[in-house]
Amino acid sequence: MKRPIKIMLGITLAMIVILGVMLALNGNILQGRLSIRLPAYDQTKVQKSVRKVKIPPAYNDASCKESDNGKDFSNKGNIDGKLAGGQTHKDTDFCIPSSFGDDNPELVGKLREYYCDEDGYVKYEDYSCPTSTHCYQGACQSDSALALKGLYVGCTNPWVSNYDSSANAENDSCLYLGNKHIPLTRPFPINDEEEIPPAYIHQGSILVIVPSGYEEYGEAMLQDLQYCQNLVTNFLGINSYWEDIIAKIYVSKDGQTSGEYNPEIGNIIYKKSQENLNDELQEVITNNEEGFLYNSSPSYCANTHEYTHFIVAKTHIPWWANEGIAEYSQKYNQLGSKDEYVCDNDGWYGNDYWGDGQYKKFEYSNLLEEYGNNLGDGPKWYHTAMCFWELFEQSFGHEKLIEAFQLLRLKDSEAVQLNEPITKFFIEEILFEVVDNQDLKTILDKFGFTKGVDYTF
Ligand SMILES: [Zn+2]
Question: Could you say which of 87, 108, 140 is where a domain stops?
Answer without folding.
Answer: 140
